[in-house]
Amino acid sequence: MRILSTCLTAVLLCVLSPYSDSAKSMDFDTIEERLDHVERVMGSQALMDLLKRVDDLQREIQELRGQVEVQAHALSRIKQSQRNYYLDLDKRLRQVGVAATEAGTTTPAASRLPGVRIPPAVEPDAASVREKPLQGLKKPAPSGVESNSDREQAAYQKAFDLLKKKHYAEAITSLKAFLKRYPGGQYAGNAQYWLGETYYIMRQFKPSLNVFQRLLREYPTSSKINDALLKIGYAQDELGQKAEAERTLGNLIKQSPDSTQAHLARKRLQKILGKTP
């Protein structure tokens, strides 16, 4: 009996051994699959976090570019204002010199004629010297009376200051009101551009595109044409209009190949086409 029991035990062990190895193998396969799944999930989450960070950085870069353009525009206006001031001052000084010379000049030919009595020279009155150079110049408006040009400039400056302070919603409202009141004013083209730029900074690409395109139609001689073309290409790219963006940026490069805007257009085109800038 003991021998029979021993034989049965040996047979059972031989039969169960393959199943035990198979169970262990299945356990190992299941663990490895689970680990692979966890790694894929973690990798996917890390990728999503990285993409979100890249998107945040791109948004910050766009805002910084907008601020740089705002500051550059403000600096340009200051330089232009100073230049106008010095030109006006130089003109006034030259007119004062001409007036003083005419007042103190005698007629040499008459002094040589016999019997001609030359009246004593009259010292020019200081008040008359001051008045003569101002003749023909536009007189300033009386104190307390503001001209239409001054009101336009003040309204534009108010809207522009809101943009500089990053009060974007208020700046949009103010710029729209300015364009409605002064559609043909000397600052209308610039106001149209900064309205589109404000929308772009806020990532409202559709209204930004419409505003820039309107600038091309209604203010074709504006100094902001190249800037508007560049931002039209940018907005089209952001809206997924790749073919239109390529065409717009390509036209800008052809029109002004050596401009700063053309340089930025080339970089954006490289990005659109998937090339390393």
Automatic annotation (TrEMBL):
Keywords: Cell cycle, Cell division, Coiled coil, Periplasm, Signal, TPR repeat
GO cellular component: outer membrane-bounded periplasmic space
Keyword Coiled coil: yes
Localization (cell): Periplasm
TPR repeat start and end residues: 189-222
A Pfam family it matches: TolA_bind_tri
Renumbered residue ranges of the record's region Disordered: 108-150
Signal sequence segment: 1-23
Highest taxon of the lineage: Bacteria
Cited SUPFAM superfamilies: TPR-like (SSF48452)
Location of the YbgF trimerisation domain: 31-96
Main location: periplasm
Domain Outer membrane lipoprotein BamD-like: 151-271
GO biological process per UniProt: FtsZ-dependent cytokinesis; protein trimerization
InterPro entries noted in UniProt: BamD-like (IPR039565), CpoB (IPR034706), CpoB_C (IPR014162), TPR-like_helical_dom_sf (IPR011990), TPR_rpt (IPR019734), YbgF_tri (IPR032519)
Coiled coil: 47-74
Function: Mediates coordination of peptidoglycan synthesis and outer membrane constriction during cell division.
Family of this protein: Belongs to the CpoB family.
Name of the protein this chain belongs to: Cell division coordinator CpoB
Source organism (scientific name): Candidatus Kentrum sp. UNK
Gene coding for it: cpoB
